[in-house]
Amino acid sequence: MPNPRLTGLGCGLFCVAVMLTLGTLDAMLFGSSPIVYGVLFLPVCVLAAVWVRGVDLVTVPIVVPIAFASGLVFVAERGEGLSGRVVGLFTALATQAGWLYGGTLVAGSIVTVRKVRMMRRRRAARSRPPA
Q: 77 pLDDT exceeds 70?
């Protein structure tokens, strides 16, 4: 498996691009199924949390909800005009909050574990006597 290291901005762009693509594919192939979109959101969260650089770990729990909302534009029900689309988006965000919270929790948990491991490695490297 490749081991890319994305910057915070790169992670954000990756998540938004993938979720826009998945939202579009979901609308075309599955008739805008929010459940399919939510299930596809979880691996994106995992990949974002695994592939981001150690310095930019804090950006992942911020980026994944933005990416979820950006792709949800294609999955949400469309009403008449701009106000109908906005209401559809907010309704989809409210009804699909479980997927949003779950994906953010998964990404946040992975990022937290990575940060704790990084801090332990640094502490162990500092406590070693110089050679």
A: yes
